[in-house]
């Protein structure tokens, strides 16, 4: 006769590191209570469960409504490394949803996260920068980061973080500088970005060029790009093996060549030939940026003279599949064919 035996193993599909989730509408309130527990394991398990639940925007909304953000902000100061790592992970997952980003602004989460910029745990810092990157996708989120006075710190961190975090920083800075580049320009961001243009990592080269687009929008940015001799490096990147790098380099040149000094710096660096080659790129963004940069150079008599022989190339682009490229080509032709 068979004996009844109780297994020594846990039931299947049970995660011993994660808190048991209550049924229905009681789930989040219970986890919110456990976040405040004095027991370390209870806090850790609650955070593990929240990491799974926060992928659903409805759960994010409810978590904010019942006050989870305030408890998460408190846990950012926890002495336990794993608690801080999982707290930042919960917050970055929440920041992937619009309701979460709005909640960050309403509950001053940016300031609370900023205290971990120098945290000893690299995962903690990576999660923090993921949260900032997602938050900056919202114009008010980018403005919130700028208003918090974090831009100088983010620029400074660009020199000291590992490459994966540098990419996140560049994404955040590019979005924030579209709102206001004043603090970045005062923090020597242009020389730092110039150095990143020379990186062996193509993602960093591309994102650095993209950030230069944003910082070159104000006149002071254009002047600094010229003064720090960034234009010859951008011209060199027009021949990069990666199409995205080429496109962003052309975009940065498009802004940098608005000024007379920028135009002649690009002409002296022989930018016209590689820009003309980009007109045949499979990437519409590259074609568009190249046309606009060439239009800027055509405003200089020397540039206009060199481009007159290439008007048929611009005529062909009037039939491009992209409406923006068509319009840019028409404007370029008018500028090239203009006679005083």
Question: What does this molecule look like?
Answer:
The chain is mainly alpha-helical and 340 residues long. Helix content is 69%, strand content 0%. It is built from 23 helices and no strands. It has helices at 27-35, 40-53, 57-65, 68-75, 81-94, 98-106, 109-114, 122-136, 139-147, 151-157, 163-179, 182-186, 189-196, 202-215, 219-227, 231-237, 243-256, 260-268, 272-278, 284-298, 301-307, 311-317, 323-337. Helix 9 (139-147) crosses helix 11 (163-179) and helix 19 (272-278) packs antiparallel against helix 20 (284-298). The radius of gyration is 26 Å and the shape is elongated. The mean pLDDT is 92.
Keywords:
69% helix; 340 residues
The DSSP helix count reads: 23
Gyration radius, in Å: 26 Å
Order of helices and strands: HHHHHHHHHHHHHHHHHHHHHHH
Instruction: Tell me, briefly, the overall form.
Output: elongated
- Total strand segments: 0
Q: State the distance separating the first and last CA atoms.
A: 108 Å
**Class per helix and strand makeup:** mainly alpha
Beta-strand content estimate: under 5%
Mean pLDDT: 92
Oligomerization state of this entry?
A: single chain
Largest sheet: none
Helix content: 55-70%
């Amino acid at each position: 006769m068979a004996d009844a035996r109780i297994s020594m193993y846990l039931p299947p599909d049970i995660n011993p590191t994660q808190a048991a989730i209550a049924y229905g509408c009681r789930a989040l309130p219970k986890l919110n209570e456990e976040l405040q527990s004095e027991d370390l394991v209870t806090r850790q398990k609650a955070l593990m469960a929240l990491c799974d639940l926060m992928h659903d925007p409805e759960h994010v909304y409810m978590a904010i409504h019942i006050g989870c953000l305030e408890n998460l902000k408190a846990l950012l100061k926890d002495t336990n490394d794993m608690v801080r790592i999982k707290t930042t992970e919960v917050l970055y997952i929440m920041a992937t949803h619009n309701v979460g980003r709005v909640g960050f602004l309403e509950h001053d989460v940016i300031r609370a996260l900023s205290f971990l910029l120098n945290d000893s745990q690299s995962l903690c810092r990576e999660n923090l920068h993921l949260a900032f990157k997602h938050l900056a996708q919202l114009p008010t989120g980018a403005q919130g980061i700028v208003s918090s006075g974090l831009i100088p710190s983010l620029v400074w961190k660009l020199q000291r973080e590992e490459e994966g975090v540098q990419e996140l920083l560049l994404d955040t800075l590019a979005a924030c500088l579209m709102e206001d580049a004043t603090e970045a320009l005062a923090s020597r961001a242009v020389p730092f970005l110039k150095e990143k243009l020379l990186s062996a990592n193509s993602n960093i080269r591309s994102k650095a060029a993209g950030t230069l687009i944003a910082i070159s929008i104000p006149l002071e940015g254009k002047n600094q790009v010229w003064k720090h001799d960034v234009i010859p490096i951008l011209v060199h990147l027009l021949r990069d093996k990666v199409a995205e790098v080429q496109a962003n380099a052309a975009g940065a040149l498009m802004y940098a060549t608005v000024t007379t000094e920028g135009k002649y710096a690009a002409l002296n660096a022989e930018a016209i030939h590689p820009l003309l080659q980009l007109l045949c790129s499979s990437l519409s963004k590259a074609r568009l940026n190249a046309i606009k940069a060439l239009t800027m150079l055509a405003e200089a008599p020397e540039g206009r003279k060199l481009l007159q022989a290439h008007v048929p190339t611009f005529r062909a682009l009037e039939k491009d599949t992209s409406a923006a490229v068509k319009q840019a080509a028409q404007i370029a032709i008018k500028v090239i064919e203009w006679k005083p």
